[in-house]
Amino acid sequence: MLSGLSLLDTVLVGGVDFAWLERLVEHATGWLGLVIIWVYSFLIAFALPGVSEVVLAAPLDLGLGYWPRMSVIIFVSAFGKAAGSVFAFHIGQEAKDSGWIIKRLRNSRFDIIEWSERQTVTIAQKWGYAGLALALCVPGFPDTLSIYAFSVLEEDYVKFAVATFVGSAGRLILWLAGAEAVLSVL
Questions:
Q1: Structure pTM?
Q2: What would the pLDDT profile of 57-92 be if each residue is shown by its tens digit?
Q3: What residue ranges do the domains of the chain occupy?
Q4: Burial of 32 by CB count in 10 Å (0-12 exposed, 13-18 middle, 19+ buried)?
């Protein structure tokens, strides 16, 4: 199982333990499992800590071979994450218009806004939406920060959704390719 990759076992969000949701994904079967994967991916894009690779551990029995099954999981997860990212994008647009959120974050103990803006502005200026997709391709890295940082800087919902879909799918493909490479050596 991929639970070692996720922070859900150790992190509480608003005092609520979401490890049950990760376990639900890890045991998702059948076509209903795709709904669970979509919901998990949607939530991880804007609200849950952790990484999205856990969806690859879902033991879905869809009557498909290994690669077609993995392709369906990757597509459903990337679609859910793109939808969640668009929701985060909307929140970011609202936050941009609501100065008190940005002011509170700037005045917090850790100036996460300044750091993330600096990193994100550099990536956005150099690579644009392709930079967002590339940032989201990094396996094992919680990408909620990148999603929110880009959402405050950018304004195009469609390009944002496409970039998050491509980045999310790319991340899972890279993870699978890496796992396959390691397993072939063993």
A1: 0.75
A2: 899 989 999 999 999 999 999 999 999 999 988 877
A3: 3-185
A4: exposed
